[in-house]
Amino acid sequence: MNERKIKEIERLIGKFFDGETTLREEQRLYEFFARRSVPARLQGYREVFAGFASMQAGEPRRLKLRRVLMRVAAAAAVALIVVSAVVAYAGYREDRHLARLYGGSYVIENGHRIDDLSEIKDDIEKALDDAGRIERRISSANVADNAEQEVLNSIDDPSERRRISEMLND
User: Which stretches are transmembrane (predicted)?
Assistant: First the structure.
C-alpha cells in the first residue's frame, strides 16, 4: 500500500475521532480495516473500527440472510406446532365421539376382553349394521304377518278362514 493512501486513512481517523466524518468516509474506514493486510502502524485501530462497523445501520448480507432463515425456521416451527395441535385435537375429538357413542362397549376375542374403542370401533359398527338389517327383516316380516292376519279376519266363513290359514302356514 502506498504512503499517500496510508496518510489519507490517518487523516480520516483524525476526522472520525473529532466527529467530522461523513457516512461515506466512515464506510471507507470500516472497509479499510476489514481488509486482510493493514499496515503495522494502523493495526491498533483495527479492532476499534471493527467494533464501530458492527454497529452500523446496514447489516452485512450474510447477517440479513441468517436473520431471514431464522424467521423462516421459526415460521416452519410454528406451522408444525399448529398442525400437530390440530391433529392431536382431532384425535381427542374422535376419542370423545367414540366414548359418547359406544362407551362401555367391549369385545371378547380369543378369551381376552378388548375395550379400547378405537380398536373395536369397526366390530361395533358391523354389529350395529347387522342388527339394523335384522330389524328391517323382522319389520318387513311383521308387515306380511299383519297383512295375512287382516286378510284372514276379513273372511266371514270360519271353515274357509281355517283352510286359508293352513295353506299360509305350510
Answer: 68-92
CA distance 118 to 97: 10
- Give pairs for 34-38: CB < 8 Å, separation 24+: 37/1
Q: Dihedral through CA 54, CA 60, CA 65, CA 71, nearest 10?
A: 30
| Helix, strand or coil, per DSSP, at residue 159 | helix
Which amino acid would we find at residue 34? A
Max Cα distance, the chain (Å) = 141
Q: How far is the C-alpha of 130 from the C-alpha of 124, rounded, in Å?
A: 10
Smallest Cα–Cα separation from 23: which of 60, 64, 53, 63? 53
Domain boundaries defined on the chain: 3-58, 60-103, 118-169
pLDDT of residue 81 exceeding 90, the answer is yes
What average pLDDT does range 84-93 have in this prediction? 87
Query: What is the rounded (10 degree) CA torsion for 89, 90, 94, 95?
Result: -30
